[in-house]
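FAQ
Q: What does a multi-component entry look like?
A: The components come first, one per line:
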Amino acid sequence: MLRPSTVFVALLTFHIIESNATDILQNSDRGFTLKREESLLSITAISNEIIRVRLTTPTQLNDDRSFAVDLSYREPVTIAVTGDDKATTLKTSALIVNVQHQPMRVEFFDKQGRSLDRDDNERGLQHYKNGWQLSKRLRDDEQIYGLGEKTGKLNKRGVALGGYHYTMWNSDTYGYDSSVDPIYVSVPFYLVLREGNTHGIFLDNSFRTSFDIGKAQRGVLTMSADGGEVNYYFIAGPDPKSVIARYTDLTGKTPLPPRWALGFHQSRWSYFPESRLRLIANTFRDKKIPADTLWLDIDYLQDFTPFIWNRDYFPQPQNMIADLQQQGFQVVTIVDPHPKNEVGYAPYDQGIAGDHFVKNPDGSVFEGPVWPSNAKTPRNSVFPDFTRATTRHWWGDLHKELLAQGVAGIWNDMNEPAVWIAPHNTMPIDVQHQNDGYPTTQAEIHNVYGLLHTRATHEGLLRLRPGKRPFVLTRATYAGGQKYAAVWPGDNTSDWSSLRQSLPTLMGMGVSGFNFVGADIGGFAGVPSGELFTRWLQASLFSPFMRAHTQQGTPDQEPWSYGAAFEAINRRTLEWRYQLLPMIYSEMEASSRSGVPLMRPLFVEFPHDAGTWSRDDQFMFGGDVLVAPVLHEGAAQRATYLPKGKWFAWESSQSIEGGREISVDVTLASIPMFVREGAVVLRQPTVQHTGEMNTQPLTFDIYPAASSSREFYSDAGDSFAYHDGDYMRLQITQKRQRERNEYAITRRGGHYQSSAPYFEMRLIGVHAARSVMLDGKPLTKLSAAHAPAQRDGWMIRDGDVVVRWSTINRDHRVSVAH
Ligand code: MIG
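Then the predicted structure of the entire assembly, as tokens:
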């Protein structure tokens, strides 16, 4: 991603400054390096808005590696470096970085000279045995977000500036609640919001790190690491979307997944034997409850042995999967990173021959108990050393047979890694990883083990099935892991507080670069009531990854498992998911380019509205839909904050002025949702699975505004043909004028020819029209009754004007005289 034209304006007012403690060692076209005692401090402009701060030693200087960042990533910059013996300053077109030499303190300013971030004067940077801690000023009016997959509040200031202390150490935490930390994923990245302006800090260090957000000491944010370098990136905004976009420029974006992966997923631990799985599939279709994917957990395996089917339960996987595909289902299978230690088992034999396994300090292969140790003939497991490129390649290729059998995606579990060794439930800290020429221990690799596992899986799927977009789900990962896999936050609990927790956890992941996320619907540990399951499904209507899952031995946890009344509501929720899939898919595509999450906290859209800063029981889907799912048992009302502006209630289209909290009356069927003025909501008729989508008509619900413009993306669904332009990007605009409203639908990119029979615009709030013109020619008025047969014309439907045309692959202008 090296971009050529680096603009370099160096104002070198000095060469080498001799002072007793600090030397300017060198200037580059991107920054400077200071030497102080045995350390080197490098300040590097990756772009005008991203500054890297790295403290290293001369011997380590060229040993610059990252598991998250492509270190060749650079944008053009315009910089100037100035300094004297007290301080050195770097200016870019967006930022000013000032380094005070003695004691060494770093401060960032915006270009107006307002201080954004600075080291705590008193504490600054402190080293201790193998580790360090860096303290930064934390102002009372700074809100803190992010840090990836975390429990607790969205706003990490907690309640009344109480603050949190979070640790990064991937951990298997069965049945966790809101007080448990760490859980499965480590993303040492946070956002700071102050007076509506945002910046971010990404500490790229995979050792155990921690973030104390004003908890130990009010007014101080301290990050610390048990090893590795002080190596962080300051990322300017000022709006939250720019910070997230830049953070994901650094660490990568989630690639566009196959469209089926955005449908509904039904899982449990475990569906077996084959007849049970087929019964589940048939029940979805018989009951006309839409779904795309069925999941096979560890009981599909012989003795929990990765890649080996249990042929008693699943005698002919290939035939079974082919039949399920006929019914419109995909099958995802679990693949854990713990091959069995057993001579004669190919992955073990090949792994020994190829030196693919993690080692003990004495050079022997490390082995430990995890699932295969629970088999009838118990065996320890060995663990691939995913830090080696050749091992990742080997492991990826092991999926060949599963894919040939028709498996559509892979579920990577247990990759914290979870190993049943007390007391930490993971590998010992001193196990050895070869790390492609930079041998190191579990202390550095633990937090990236899951990321490297999913990288092996993702790249394997790409190689083995080059025409299809891979789908991988993982439990553990690290910053940047969004490039390889969707993430679910593990073994949550079937209770109301876990449902409530899922929102801030998922939103926190979203602002930390992970946009393809979703929690186990209904909860994993324990048994949900019908009401809880129904509410959880509703709360997941816009969850990017939408999967019901539960632990072994619990009662049935499918949409129909709680009686007819719940079943009807659950069916309707899933019908809405599928009606809205064209929009959900389009938002996913936008997010795959921007990195801004689809499911986003209110502050991302409304950073200047203080009412949004700590609101974490509701969220925005994309930029236009506010979702306030019911999260309390027996609720009759739902308090909902509407940010400033004009909103429309989802079902009634009634308009409401925002900037206040409202109380919405709710029933068991309610999912309170509000649409922003000027929005366009894209829908299709109900389908039973995504395989039925390409021939559906599309309806653009246009919410009124003086003028507005929105874009939508669509393609055929699962291949990479969109890389070659086989997609459709449409722009929809509206403009209100004195005598008429003007609308336009315009192709903005791609040459995909949609096979939809017709498109419609539904003009919300436009109840009558004197005439409707399509490209300057009058359109026939249809009666709603005969409308379905008539492809071109306009009508009044449910009180609103609807305009319909069948020449869908052409641009059109619509004019409505009122
Ligand atoms: O030791 O594969 O979080 O989703 O069902 C438990 C069995 C292993 C943990 C996962 C869960 C999965 C379960 N796994």
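Q: Is there any commentary attached?
A: Sometimes. For this entry: The two ends are 52 Å apart (CA to CA).
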